[in-house]
Design a protein that fits this description.
Number of strands: 32
Radius of gyration: 20 Å
CATH architecture: 6 Propeller
Largest sheet: 7 strands, mixed
CATH superfamily: TolB, C-terminal domain
Helix content: under 10%
Structural class: mainly beta
Strand content: 35-45%
CATH class: Mainly Beta
């Protein structure tokens, strides 16, 4: 798979700020070690287990044709599309049927200009309208949402998380710092990370709830440091390492803040892993998508084994996406990773598609356009298993 195709697909999932900002245990103390490249060609089906494919049922207007974030609870499947429809979609966990989310586009106090993120905390769903400078809480009970009074935010934001003291968010345009903490009333407590080209592109999901130990972490695309943020403070947690050494933060960020400058910045980092576009972790398993020497890789971590595989060496016989070698994880639920499958993006001419679980799901649900994919990693197996 070519870099061009990978970037084309990932660019649909990443929000770029150009317009608004012009091989064993992976975890040494303080480090997450990117494992060595295997060099072998692997079928995705040989790297996963516990695969579930759930049809999402609803009218075309109530289905997401792009997914940036997925969250699953005992009762709900929630999918956020923050780039195209800029909306939140909800489905019943048991049946896969669409549920009406009572948030409308508009200028009213209970309306949003756009949905830029959402965060789930118990039976509460917090919906971010970054441009509208508000968070709208929703409560959910017995297949019904109830909208609550919005929380006004002092500054523009783009992505966020709920903390124990309020909220933490990536800022929008015109701010000196990239990260800001709010109290529960939406007032700014503190801001961090001076604005630079290193934050011009953000990861698919920069904030993550690690349910295994109730921590919330933040990471960016080019800084190798993971931060703990749930206490309303920015505390370094882990640093990515490569070939036995901690990866260095970018030293030169003095580039023009445009596309040419961004490409020059990326080129200056070609000799070390960077552009950590996708990170998802169940606590015991982790998926990291990154670039090194202008090639893209998936680093896969489990309790038994860790491997890095170049994207072009992956045969996607699981989601059969035309352009991406491994399903792009957009959330986790317990011990499983969550991804979406859009039927029109499925390569049904793939030599392994005939008789696959996805083909069976599509045949059994001929009117379904979108599926939820759940899986966990199984890195002990071989291609022939």
């Amino acid at each position: 798979m070519t870099i061009k195709k990978i970037m084309k697909k990932i660019s649909k999932l990443l929000i770029v700020f150009f317009l608004t900002n012009c091989n064993q245990s992976p975890h040494k103390s303080g480090y997450l070690d990117i494992p060595p490249e295997t060099g072998e060609v692997r079928k995705v089906s040989s790297l996963v287990k516990d695969v579930t494919i759930t049809p999402l049922i609803g009218d075309l207007g109530n289905l997401p044709y792009e997914a940036d974030k997925i969250s699953v609870t005992d009762d709900l499947i929630l999918i956020g599309d923050f780039n195209f429809s800029q909306s939140l979609f909800a489905f019943d966990r048991a049946s896969g049927e669409t549920l009406e989310v009572p948030i409308r586009k508009g200028e009213g106090p209970y309306e949003v200009k756009e949905v830029d993120d959402f965060w789930v905390e118990g039976n509460q769903i917090y919906v971010l309208d970054g441009i509208g400078r508000k968070v709208i809480p929703l409560s959910y009970w017995e297949k019904t949402f109830e909208i609550e009074d919005p929380i006004r935010l002092e500054v523009l934001t783009q992505r966020f998380a709920k903390t124990k003291t309020g909220f933490v968010a990536l800022t929008g345009g015109g701010q000196d710092n990239e990260l800001v903490f709010f109290n529960k009333s939406g007032k700014v407590i503190s801001s961090h990370l001076p604005h630079s080209i290193a934050y011009l592109m953000k990861p698919l999901n920069p904030f993550h709830k690690l349910h295994s130990d109730d921590r919330t972490i933040f990471h960016s695309s080019f800084e190798p440091v993971f931060y703990q943020v749930e206490q309303g403070e920015l505390n370094p947690l882990d640093t990515l390492a490569f070939q036995g050494k901690g990866i260095q933060s970018p030293k030169n960020t003095d580039f023009v803040m445009d596309l040419d400058g961004f490409n020059q910045f990326r080129e200056s980092l070609r000799n070390q892993p960077s552009m950590f576009s996708v990170f998802e972790s169940t606590g015991k398993q982790t998926i990291l998508f990154y670039f090194y020497s202008n090639k893209s890789y998936f680093a896969l971590f489990s309790e038994e084994k860790n491997i890095s595989i170049q994207s072009e060496n992956l045969v996607n016989d699981l989601s059969f996406d035309y352009e991406v070698g491994f399903p792009i994880a957009k959330g986790v639920s317990n011990a499983k990773f969550l991804a979406s499958i859009i039927k029109e993006q499925v390569n049904q001419e793939h030599p392994n598609f005939e008789g696959s679980e996805l083909q069976k799901a599509i045949i059994a649900n001929p009117l379904t356009e979108v599926f939820l994919l759940e899986f966990s990693l199984d890195l002990k197996r071989k291609n022939s298993d």
